[in-house]
Write a structure and sequence with these properties.
Helix content: 25-40%
Number of helices: 8
Low-confidence stretches: 139-145
CATH architecture: 3-Layer(aba) Sandwich
Largest sheet: 9 strands, mixed
CATH class: Alpha Beta
Number of domains: 1
Amino acid sequence: MYNPDTETLETLKIGNLLYIQPKQGYRFSVDAILLADFVKVKPDERIIDLGTGSGILPLLIAALTPVCEIVGLELQERLAQIARRNVRLNALDDRIQILEGNLRQVPQLFRAGTFDVLCSNPPYRKVGSGRINPENEQAIARHEIACSLGDLLVAWKYLVKPGGRVFVVYLPERLSELLAGLTASRLEPKKLRCVHSTQQSSASLALVEAQRDASPGLIVLPPLFLYTNGQEYSEEAKRILREKDE
C-alpha cells in the first residue's frame, strides 16, 4: 500500500482519513486545512482543485462537505499517482477523480465553465523571492516555476461557470496583486480573511473567495488567530484542526 522507506502513512483527525505522502518532497501544510474549512460547496455542485499535490484538498473537502463530484488536477506524475492511491485508500473513488495535467492546457482537458466551484493552494512565491527548495517537487509546489499568477487567473476564469466561486489561499504580501488580477479576470473578490499566528503578529496567509461575473462588494471577515498565549491553539484553530474534544 505504501513504501515505508520513502513515504509516510498517517491518520488525519479530520474524517479519520488515511493519508500517504512522500518523506522527501512536497508535504502538505496547515494552508490546505485552512482552505478546506473556508471552502463552501453544495452537494450537487462540481468542484475542482488545481495543483492537488497528493490529493489533500479533495480528501478534506470530501470529509467536510457532502459534495459528490470532486476533481483534482496535478502536474507532477509522482504526486498524481500518490493522490490516486489516497483516494482508493479512503474508498472515495465514487466522489474524487485525480487527473494528471498542466493547468496551462485546461482547454484540452475540460469544457469552459465545467465547474461550480474551484479551489487552489497555488505556488504563491515568485522565483527569486525566498530560498528555492532543493527538492524540485516542493519547489514547483511553492514557487512560480511551472505557472504564474497570470496562468492561474486564466485557468480559474475558464473553469468556473458564470456565478461560480473560486477559493484560494495566498500570501498577504501579494494580496493586492491577487485582488487586482481577480477583478481584471471578472472574478470579483467577495470575501477576504487574513490568518495570523497570534494577535500581535502580521498576517501570514490570506483566504479569498471570488465569484465570476459578480457585482463589486468585498466583505472583510474577522481575522483568524491560530495561537493564543505561547503555542496553544486558539478555540477556532482547535475546531478547524480538530484539536478540540468533541
